[in-house]
Amino acid sequence: MAEQKTVTFIITRQDGPDSAPYEETFEVPYRKNMNVISGLMEIRKNPVNAKGEKTTPVQWDMNCLEEVCGACSMVINGVPRQSCAALVDELETPVRLAPMSTFPVVRDLIIDRERMFDALKQVKAWIPIDGTHDLGPGPRMPEKKRQWAYELSKCMSCGVCLESCPNVNDKSNFIGPAALSQARLFNAHPTGEMNKSERLDGLMQEGGISGCGNAQNCVQVCPKGIPLTTSIAAMNRATNIQAFKNFFGSDNAH
Amino acid sequence: MAVHRELFYRRLHSLLGVVPIGLYLVTHLVVNHFAVYGEEEFNRAAGFMGNLPFLILLEIFVIYLPILFHAVLGVYIALTANYNLKNYGFFRNWMFALQRITGIVTLIFIVWHVWETRVQKALGVVEVNYSLMESILSSPFMFWFYVVGVISTVFHFSNGLWGFMVTWGITQSPKSQKITTYGVVVVFLVLSYIGVRSLIAFAYGV
Question: What sequence ranges are listed for the domain 4Fe-4S ferredoxin-type (chain A) (predicted)?
């Protein structure tokens, strides 16, 4: 029988949140159409590194396996993306895997994306409709607008835009592009619009929209093709108008 | 509503870069261009600017304080970025990095330029006129220092105009942002020509 073809993975590992990162190389048996996750599953099955030493299986995060949940984001050959959608046949070998550096590492390739959820809370990226009684149907949304808003709603908080952003780092408190665009999405919704100024207030707080430096990497790397920089410019306009209203306008600048 | 101090300072930073600093820069470069028409023409134009009424107040409120604020916050902004051109070599990411690099270069240039001209004049050491610039720029090192300084300043202003348009929510669509990019390239080329042409006139008298 011919010798089994293998794929080399060089993985940046870290045993815990406070331990030092190190690299470990693995030779994984090749299978047709395999993705990075199936490579990681092979390592989990047989956790032996390229030197033939037994090691701990590499830990990673995943959920949907169809690029809609955002959990399996990692840096693959220098590019942040979802490992489920990264096909080995389309990658340069050796395949280098590393955790996204913007986020705290939990273990190996698992990162903690809590800051993204905090950012969504800051801009109130939801529509408060809970009531103790039936509030009746909400206002209708034009179909054309729905189709447009659907594109913004594809955001899965995967963190790729934060990873590529030069202004999201430990020296700045910038919340990143994802939440800025989500504020726009919910402000465009006919019911969400009723809480528009609260979301704009979130954008105007520290670490909000003023942290953007227009490097525009986010829109280039977004796996969902969300027009993040258009959202940011639109929210720049909206926050400026809100700021003027707050200062010069009436006492009811909702 | 809460006080949004960070937003206010960043917006003020953006505004001051264009009004008044950008307007002052354009005026300054255009007045310099009188050097091309001869020593007398330049001294007449510079003399008009240097004898404006309330000159010291104009200088403080239109030039010194805005530049000081823009520079202090600008250095902070430049130092809090995490430059990542290696992994993301996109055009706008380059502009992002160059905007911060030219900001620092421009600050060094302006400090030296103000020291050499305005401060020396205040100390009564020199007169600000054609022959002062001629003597400074006749040294090849200073000539090239000024060329780098002027181009860096003009780049920072031109690219800053693009950022201003986004920051104030004027250009939102990718198309409008792209066309503005072409527009600021023209601004960059025109102002660079005016600036460098004057330097050549001072240094070589042509």
Answer: 146-174
Distance from CA of B165 to the nearest CA of A (A): 9
- The number of folded domains in chain B is 1
CA dist A43 to A81, B19, B62, Å?
Answer: 20, 60, 65
Domain A6-111 is in which class?
alpha beta
Each as own residue / partner, the long-range contacts of residues B116-122 (CB below 8 Å, 24 or more positions apart, any chain) are none
Tell which B residues from 128 to 147 touch A, by Cβ distance under 8 Å. Answer: none
Three-class DSSP category at A13 = strand
Cβ–Cβ of B169/A243 closer than 8 Å? no
For the structural domain made of A114-248, what CATH number should be given?
1.10.1060.10
Q: Nearest CA of chain A to the CA of B101: how many Å?
A: 14
ipTM above 0.90, yes or no: yes
Q: Does B76 touch chain A (CB under 8 A)?
A: no
The answer to whether A6-111 and A114-248 have equal CATH topology is: no
Q: What percent of chain B has pLDDT over 70?
A: 99
Q: What is the tens place of the pLDDT at every residue in A228-239?
A: 999 999 999 999
